[in-house]
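User: Please fill in residues for this 159-position structure.
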């Protein structure tokens, strides 16, 4: 088994790993009703998977990729914990199970000010900066506008 990078990510032997838990970012969780909303809404798209399923999909993708020397990595990404299980919405992954750059940029913008749960909810909440559309519906069509919306929301939250 290869050594893991300090910040999580992929092991040097090329096997996929996921970022370590961040207790501060996981401190805020929603209610059962909010969880049901997250699951229902993300399922309308490409779905949502737990840690085990995500690692399985990443491993399969790694077997089908031409060797390029780059490592699989699921962070920074949209994920949240519920009762000890970590969940990832699949909208953010490309065919090689890499997090799409458009999502990475938004997550990086929001990570220091809101919890993982809030980031997952942010993508599904109509946003005034996006003409009351959900960021998930615009992130791949107009990534600059979604990133600007995240920056504006960050600015408002930080003050």
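Assistant: Residues filled in for all 159 positions:
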């Amino acid at each position: 088994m290869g050594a893991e990078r300090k910040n999580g990510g992929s092991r040097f032997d090329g096997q996929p790993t996921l970022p370590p838990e961040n207790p501060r970012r996981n401190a805020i969780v929603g209610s059962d009703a909010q969880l049901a909303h997250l699951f229902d809404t993300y399922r309308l798209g490409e779905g949502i998977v737990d840690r085990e399923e995500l690692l399985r999909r990443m491993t399969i993708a790694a077997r089908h990729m031409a060797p390029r020397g780059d490592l699989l990595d699921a962070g920074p990404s949209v994920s949240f914990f519920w009762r000890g299980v970590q969940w990832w919405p699949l909208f953010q992954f490309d065919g090689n199970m890499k997090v799409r750059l458009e999502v990475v940029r938004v997550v990086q913008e929001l990570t220091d000010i809101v919890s993982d749960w809030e980031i997952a909810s942010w993508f599904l909440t109509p946003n005034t900066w996006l003409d009351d559309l959900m960021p998930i519906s615009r992130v791949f069509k107009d990534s600059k506008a979604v990133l600007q919306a995240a920056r504006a929301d960050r600015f408002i939250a930080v003050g």
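For context: The beta strands are 48-50, 80-82, 85-89.
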